[in-house]
Design a protein that fits this description.
Layout: H1 2-6, H2 11-37, H3 43-51, H4 55-66, H5 71-81, H6 85-91, H7 100-107, H8 111-118, H9 123-151, H10 158-161, H11 166-181, H12 183-199, H13 207-211
Family: Belongs to the AzlC family.
Main location: membrane
Membrane topology: Multi-pass membrane protein
């Protein structure tokens, strides 16, 4: 079955997807451990990992609630961070499947699966990479969360050991080839990054990510 659906992918792509999923699993272990250290019952991070399936939003949620914030405000902040999934959905609408399958396809849509899906040269490879990475993340994230909850307070937070930098580094490495090929994409990406960074000291949490989309308005002279 694996060869039937994913046999079109090259070895380098399969290796990269495996390494990304491994990194996701490691961060998930830290997430589960952190939730336990904050005093959350096991069902909270586990249910979040199964239903939300978005690491940044989940870390933000437990962090805000643990610091005394309102759970509703924490949920809204998580939604703001995940608002980037709207343009994601438009971009990968041909990859998520049709009818009932599209619900699962949308659920496993994340930064990693979108990047892998869009970086492949053929439609068949794009769809295979999107689904393989998405399903891999959907498996290792809850599994890692459960494992992390089991080890409790033995692991530090991601920021302490630098795991918070894993995903940005991976995604940057994956999108660099596309930026090299298109000067317009490079200008738009750079503009979005500059806008986001400039707004961090003034904008509420989650808003800089949305403001970065203004970079799409930049045009090549």
């Amino acid at each position: 079955m694996f060869k039937k659906h994913f046999g079109c992918l090259k070895g380098d792509t399969l290796k990269a997807i495996f390494l990304v999923c491994l990194a996701v699993g490691i961060v998930a272990v830290s997430y589960g451990s952190l939730a336990m250290a904050y005093g959350f019952p096991l069902w909270v991070p586990l249910i979040l990992s199964l239903t939300v399936l978005a690491g940044a939003s989940e870390f933000m949620f437990i962090g805000i609630v643990a610091s005394g914030g309102n759970p509703l405000a924490a949920a809204v902040a998580g939604l703001l961070v995940n608002a980037r999934h709207f343009p994601f959905g438009i971009t990968v609408r041909d990859l998520v499947g049709k009818r009932m399958l599209s619900f699962l396809g949308c659920h496993i849509m994340n930064d990693e699966s979108v990047v892998f899906g869009l970086s492949q040269p053929t439609p068949e490879q794009r769809k295979a990479a999107f689904w393989l990475c998405g399903l891999g993340v959907a498996f290792v994230w809850p599994a890692g969360t459960l494992l992390g909850a089991g080890v409790g307070k033995l692991l530090p937070s991601p920021e302490t050991i630098g795991l918070d930098a894993v995903f940005p580094a991976i995604l940057l490495a994956l999108v660099l080839p596309a930026l090299k090929k298109s000067k317009t994409s490079l200008i738009r990406a750079s503009s979005g990054a500059a806008i986001s960074l400039a707004s961090v000291p003034f904008a509420p949490v989650g808003l800089p990510v949305l403001l970065s989309m203004l970079g799409l308005l930049a045009r090549k002279k």
